Amino acid sequence: SLSIYIYIYILAILFSPEMSGVWIFKNGVVRLVENPGAESVDGGRQGSNSRRKVLVHVASNEVMTSYANLERKLSSLGWERYYDDPDLLQFHKRSTVHLISLPKDFNKFKSMHMYDIVVKNRNVFEVRDM
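Structure tokens predicted for Flowering-promoting factor 1-like protein 3 (130 residues):
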């Protein structure tokens, strides 16, 4: 839906490694979550029983366990790596205005980044509970 595209667009504009939180778009409102580890993307509190999310390439059923694997899949879909920001991994697809920005450290690759990839690559990736 259009609201997902607006959410991702706002995240792409506002997400920066210098920020001390994560921008969340929910119910037409954008807000900064200061401690993103304490709150999930949907606004609910994460407890010790929360499930870990994984990004899965649908055709191969492969879980993306590293940026090397993810970059291979994105490259095969026409995404090109940008090297402008040393703190981020960024990918752009020439045929679109889309930009995928990911934290340099794979351990900081969170569900909001996964959903950004899913929205920009319909029917190619899924986010699943592990």
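The chain has one domain: 2-35+51-129.
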